[in-house]
Specification:
The protein is α+β, with helices and mostly antiparallel strands. It contains 3 helices and 9 strands, in the order αββαββββββαβ.
């Protein structure tokens, strides 16, 4: 089989696979009276992928990372083209700290204390809504269990 044809057939097979169009589960969260539509990354593969390779994210959308154990988890921005803010949350959804993260950097941004969740939003989303450490994110209790 000629190489270009093999490549084309391989590409078509990949695009037709169930994983190609797979989307993460979504959950509705609240921060005060602000509604958040968050994709949920509850397994290792989804947590590692995060928001990598995305070029945009709608307003009031984000990604909720669900960790198996509370710990001082850290995030970075390798292959992430969107500048983001991340809120690290305890088991009850209270914000421990918020970190601003610049696109395509490898600086570590870590939870101030043991965090069970991290919520990534577009850069400065939390600040623009007056949401600070100590605020509670509602709906966390409905998130999928970590895998």
């Amino acid at each position: 089989m000629p190489r270009p044809l093999f490549f084309l057939l391989t590409l078509v097979a990949l695009l037709a696979s169930p994983l190609a169009g797979a989307q993460l589960a979504a959950i509705e969260l609240t921060a005060g009276f602000h509604r958040i539509e968050a994709e949920v990354a509850a397994n290792d593969a989804n947590r590692q992928q995060g928001l990598m390779n995305r070029r945009s994210m709608p307003a009031n959308h984000g990604m909720l990372f669900v960790f198996a154990q509370p710990a001082r988890h850290c995030m970075w921005m390798r292959n992430t083209y969107l500048p983001l803010s991340v809120a690290f949350l305890d088991e009850e959804g209270r914000i421990l700290n918020i970190e601003n993260m610049q696109a395509q950097t490898e600086n570590s941004h870590c939870a101030a204390n043991a965090a069970r969740y991290a919520l990534e939003m577009n850069l400065d989303w939390f600040a623009s809504k007056g949401i600070q450490p100590g605020s509670r994110i509602g709906g966390i209790d409905k998130s999928p269990r970590p895998q």
